[in-house]
Predict the structure.
Amino acid sequence: MDLQKLIPILMLTIPFVKGQEELKEVCGCQDKWIRYNGSCYFISENAFSFADAETFCEQSYAHLVHIDTADENSFLKTYLLRMKDANYWIGSHDRLIEGLWTYVDTNQPLTFTDWSPGQPDSWHGHDEDCGLLYFPHKYMWDDGPCDNKIHAICELRLPEGNLLEIIG
Ligand SMILES: [Ca+2]
Ligand SMILES: [Ca+2]
């Protein structure tokens, strides 16, 4: 196993030598990441093109968010509604085959969607091949030009099972 793959495991393991409180805080998600169910999420302060947003997430061993369920979707929407108005990339796109939307982490078609009415529309024939949470519609989904620079939502799926149980 190379060091790059080992780092995320070390980051999950190191906290166990620290205090109980800190352990509870860190064993799931890194600082500034938000925990929800089996994943950690990071909302970027900087704005990126879709491709650069995915690269940004990969630097933390994550991907642009893959929204699997209505629960996860409403968690994100509720969270974003408390922040400043802005648009956010999610990991879905149809860059390869127009109209076939897949996720960057799995390359699989979407199983859950929350498109705004009339979306995705590749507006006025523009190439809008990348998925985003669109603040004017309370973070329902839209398709936008992949070169637009907006914020990224990264998702890091935690390993299955309860680490505390396994270790202790
Ligand atoms: Ca997810
Ligand atoms: Ca659109």
User: Anything to note?
Assistant: Helices lie at 3-13, 20-26, 50-58, 70-81, 163-167. The beta strands are 34-36, 39-48, 63-64, 88-93, 102-103, 130-134, 140-144, 150-157.
